[in-house]
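User: Structure with alpha-L-sorbopyranose, tokens only please.
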Amino acid sequence: MKTLNVGMLGCGFMARTHSNAYSQVGHFFDVPFKPVLKCCYGREQDIEVLKKFQQRWGYEEIETDWKKLAARKDIDIIDVVAPNFLHKEMVLAAAAAGKMIICEKPMAMNLDEAEEMVAAVEKAGVANMVMFNYRRVPAISLFKQIIDEGRVGRPFHYRAVYNQDYTISANVPSGGAALWRLSAKAAGSGVTGDLLAHSIDTAEWLNGPIKKVTAYTEVFIKERKNSDTGEMEKITIDDACMFLAVFENGSIGTFESTRYARGRKNYSAMEINGEKGAIAFNLEEPEYLEFFRYSDPDTGKKVEDHLTGWQKILVTNGEHPYMSKYWVPGTTIGYEHTFINALADFLNSSNAGGTGPKFEPDMRQAMRTQKVCDAVIRSAKEGRWVEV
Ligand code: SOE
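Assistant:
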């Protein structure tokens, strides 16, 4: 089996999720590569964190200059898990060096950057993907399967919520290794790029392209202490964002995201309501999918009245997406498995030279989400509907 030498550009939270996926993928899936955790990158000032990360995950080497790592001849795949403002530069360098590329979401700070990245990977002809891991939650994959089987029929409504609560205190600083997500210079946008990007990716995957949006954003805490500089910094990213959407298929949607929803930690939920049925999911109970069957997709015959109601499906059977790769029916898997599933699909895909189907989303497809995010931010700024 071919080895796949991994160069990890980052050593924070997302680097942990991706490193775990490389370590685990061969335990559960047949993949044509044997990943080797070759080298991980971190900034010179984070050297102790980097060393600890290396030891914990078993990387052979460390590097404090990511450009050197991206150019190394013995590296096969570059994994971009650094703060958003570095994604473009890192992807461009990895593409120029002919590496396969995995990039965390949001792929870029804005659409212009995303376009440059797509041009670079396509010119270099390198396999690439953006890590929208939630598509690979088995219950969300089943959500898609049920829609594709025609069991929802004509869709009328789509709604998505992605809420957290970790920035409510004014004492939470911005910047630094952990909280760069609050700083516009490092993150580009707030909840729109960080959380709604997930909701938008899933929504367009399930319900097709969004045609136009109208948005409202809010910044609740206007200034925070930057932990890198020690100075107070003006907060300009969106702390909260709500938008209305019209889909190409004629259905209409609502999207809400905030980091000020007291009690909500990583609450991502979505629901679709159609003529023949409805489906609902929430990430706080990720092993369940709720399905409301109104009528048979083939005959159009309505379900008997006394049997009508929401069905809560425990998505752990071998016939459910991904589940045959894990344990036995009734036993659950978790957050980390969504990254393993995504990596397995990527390594087996035709993009990576495998025999499996084309991997989605690659950077070209993920650029759609960037386009919608940009339209949302523009709409909020200009107070009007924006076509995507
Ligand atoms: C933010 O807190 C965050 O870590 C996101 O950046 C991830 O994409 C999301 O999956 C979990 O929450």
